[in-house]
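Weekly modeling sync, notes
Attendees: S.R. (lead), two postdocs, one rotation student

Agenda item 3: backlog of single-chain predictions. S.R. asked that every request posted to the team notebook include the full sequence so nobody has to chase files. The rotation student volunteered to paste the first one in as an example of the format we agreed on. Action items at the bottom.

Example entry:
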Amino acid sequence: MWKSDLPKPPVGSFENCVKCENQFTVTKYTMAANPPPGYLCHRCAKASGSDPFKKPAALKKRKPAGEKRNVTHFEERRLPSLASVCIEVISKHIDDVEALGDISTMNVDEISKALAKNRSLNAENATLFYNIENERLTLYDVTNLTPPALCALGSLNPGLRNLRLDFCGHMNDTVMSAWTASLPNLKKVELLGPFLVRAPGWQTFFRAHPDLEGFLITQSPRFDIECMRVLVESCPNLRELRLKEVGQLSDGFLAEIKPLAGKLTYLDLSYPGRPDALSESALIDVLTHVGSSLEHLDLSSHTGVTDGVLFRGIKPNMPSLTSLMLANCTELTDAGIAEFFEAWQGRSKRLSVADLSRNAGLGDAALTALLAHSGDELEELNINGWKDVTEDALKGISHKAPKLRKLDVGFCRTVDNFFVKDLLARCDNIKEIKVWGCQRVTEDCPRKRGVSIQGIELAPA
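Predicted structure, as returned to the notebook:
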């Protein structure tokens, strides 16, 4: 740097180098001595470690993301989709929607689903779904509805009897308190993600709704055993109960559920905070008490679900069961499942829904026995992850389950194009087939109009 109080000598003038004392001609590359005063010739400047002729490094410009890579699945649409156009029109003219005339329940539900895809539902356009005469309301994504908007939902739909809200993360005690007064007729409530509601908020809500028949929640870390006690005590006619992904679930909850014996038809205690949250003995005990009326049971992801629960909890106590979901219950065995269904034959209704996915130890014996027991009535079957099931056993699905509508055989290694072809030919009601991870299913797999086949791995272009 040049000394601040002395100007740089003009280019072309002569100066003496302060280091070698030789005379040199000043150029635009001449450097000041450090420490000053004086200047260095080019040779001495270079010897000091500084290169007067070195060009400053050019700043590296960051390439736009589009120049680096092109992700086909996330390219921006050049033209808006029909759904987004409808959403925009409806949102813009929300106050004039009534001018269109009556909108059927089916159309309103489809609009709700379309709004959920883009997370476009907000406090302004949510009023499309509100009506003082509403008895049922389903909103598939209320992420953008704040507590005041959720309170308004209750005030504008005072006659609701059935309410379902997905992704209701803004719901808190204030909302529950408001609903206590504004929704007196509520019979069934289904909530996904009410993280912020505390125990006192739940308890106040239960005490204000003694006629509640269905309480189904997913992901509520603050729901504790005292909430469970107040729920059963305040709502003695409860028929449907879901406590899915509830972090505090424990054996104590099961003791509180037992007074619902003879009334409970739907029980979902799946995916607890800890896989060992419920013990084998506690599960057998609660099924002994409430199993006689149960039609749906989901105990997925519990290590306490063993062959013993099947034989001592389900088999002798649950004659009305039509939907059984035991996904990721790693203590179950192939021989145990097979013997259970063989012994259960003729002692219960046949299953219409069976989910035994992600149990890698299950195979031919279990599948054969399941199809022999419930194949004629089976509508939905999930055996995702049964990696060792053979081709011969899989053939039984299309031969023995003619009413099948949905099937997931993902990561079953022997599934191939011929299996899919046979399924499409024999199962007239089939609507959905999932083949994720089935590498023998190729892009040449047969198709059928109206049937969704998901998970086919296409060969690289």
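Discussion: group reviewed the output briefly. The longest helix spans residues 105-117.
Action items: rotation student to repeat for the remaining queue; S.R. to check formatting next week.
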